[in-house]
Amino acid sequence: MTVYETEVPGVGKKFELEVGGGERLVVLIHHDGKREVYRRSDPDADSEKLFSVAGKQARQLGSIIEGAFFQPVETDEVQVPLGDAFIEWLDLHADSELAGKTLGETDLRQETGISVLAVQRGDHTHPNPDSAFELAGGDVLVTLGTREEQNSLEAMLGGSDTGDATDSDEGQDE
Amino acid sequence: MAVALYEIGIAITALAVAGSLVHRFGLSVIPAYIVIGVLVGPNYPTTLGDLSPVALGAVGDVSLQLVSNSDLVAGLAELGIVLLLFFLGLEFSVSQLLGDGRRIATIGVIDLALNFGIGLALGLAFGFGPVETLFLAGIVYISSSAVITKSIIDEGWVANPESGPILGTLVFEDIFIAIYLAVLSAVALGGGSLADAAVSVGTAFAFLGVLLAAAWYGTGVVERLFSTGSDELFLLRVLGVTTLVAGVALVMGVSEAVAAFFVGTAFSGTDHTERIEHVIAPSRDFFAAVFFFAIGLTTDVTLLADVALLLVVAVVVTTASKLLSGTASGRVYDLDPRRSLRVGLGMVPRGEFSLILATLAATAGGNAGTLGEVVPAFAVGYVLVMSIVGTLLIQNASAIERVRKLAVSPEAGS
């Protein structure tokens, strides 16, 4: 990857990164520490400003992008191999059809083939919940099943983007 | 002293109000600072009634002569010039010049030949003397780094290829203005005869040569001398040395602005650059604002009537010439016609440097005659128009691009 560096007198420095297909990211670092990031989709296009951040935030953003705080792991790889089956942590959203029902009523084992190993509610973990255990929105289900079974359960859990492994990182502060 | 403080208070408040007003419209603050200086200054308009087409009765007699053109304001304004040029030297990009020298030289010469040439032609056509003509040519030639840099950031052009030739041309203009100011001030301040002029040009270059050598070889010393943990002491040291060198230069009959430029370049090779941008830039902004304000104070707008024709012709012709030289520069950088046109539009604004020349002309001409009065009045009127026209051209570039497309291929637009 080629990086072009230019001085912008009175402003600071400009870096252009080729990101493939003629597209370039342009980072303008002001003397006062402000960073502006532009994207130019092809050589003929105009650069559009994506965002601008102050010095301190920029450095934090930089380390996040670099991976210093958190290395993303693909959802498909968060699994403990048990034959075809694996263990998954799944959020139960309030709008799910399962919220408010007991495990017995949901009949998850018959419907999806999934075994619920434990339910995390707040700080508390309920291991091996019985059929009378009532599910509620906000619960995290620890489940055992194949990819297919996990997917069919996810479809019943509500929420817009169910089972996104990075959900829990949202809103994480410094 | 009470009056002085009161007047400075009015001046700064007026600057703050005027600046905030134009900031809302995304326009350059420079014309606003000048206009507010004219309004509250000792020259016309002197009362509120002067501003209104209808009679205002008793309210019309309210005086607008709020700030006199005192030595204090003049001194602060002088610091504005020194700091503007100091930063020009500080930000002068030698690496850019060395890395892209051939192309920068090419577009610089195109820009110089066309625009300086037009300026000389204008001076001769309007019957100016040789010195006045030289001033006029400089005033219409030099683009405004301040206005242009701000505008191309606001429009996002800074991230586009057209910023290359725009900034490259500015670098060339910077070098030229340093040499030109040195020669011109030596000639203009040096007195009448050719021998006198030669002596003062010689003095100027000897002084600047010493300064340049100090800037070149003294990087290590500068680095050490200005290493201090305290921002306050750092500020005082930098302002102290810059102002002192500029002052000594002026006493010796050398342009204080050029001296400040070289002090700036002495700092540009050190690690202090970033810190100066942090610590000194606010001082520059303040003193530069006072400088523009002081320009307004000293301007007699009634003189503009005498140069109205020259002003109109100059505005039209030099807008066209910058468009032409800029577009040609874009072609040198292999830009497509659309981006090349933008380079032309981007170079149109004139500003602080034309006004520095106007101040020099006023001083050299003793505030009277063609050099001392007419040239400065022209420069102020010219900068007022060009800084606004230039900003508007950059802001409305996409509309202008469509017009250009229609002109090039009429059937494509229908």
TrEMBL record, chain A:
Residues 164-174 have a biased composition (Acidic residues). GO terms for molecular function: monoatomic cation transmembrane transporter activity. One of its GO terms (biological process) is potassium ion transport. Residues 75-159 form the RCK C-terminal domain. It comes from the Archaea. Residues 146-174 are annotated as: Disordered. This is Potassium/proton antiporter regulatory subunit, CPA2 family. The lineage of its organism: Archaea, Methanobacteriati, Methanobacteriota, Stenosarchaea group, Halobacteria.
From TrEMBL, chain B:
Residues 14-394 form the Cation/H+ exchanger transmembrane domain. It is found in: Membrane. The chain crosses the membrane at residues 12-36, 72-92, 104-128, 134-153, 165-191, 197-222, 234-267, 287-320, 341-362, 374-394. Its main location: membrane. InterPro entries: Cation/H_exchanger_TM, Na+/solute_symporter_sf. It is a multi-pass membrane protein. The keyword Transport applies. Keywords: Membrane, Transmembrane, Transmembrane helix, Transport. The keyword Transport applies. GO terms for molecular function: antiporter activity. It comes from the Archaea. GO terms for cellular component: membrane. GO terms for biological process: proton transmembrane transport. Belongs to the monovalent cation:proton antiporter 2 (CPA2) transporter (TC 2.A.37) family. This is Potassium/proton antiporter membrane subunit, CPA2 family. The lineage of its organism: Archaea, Methanobacteriati, Methanobacteriota, Stenosarchaea group, Halobacteria.
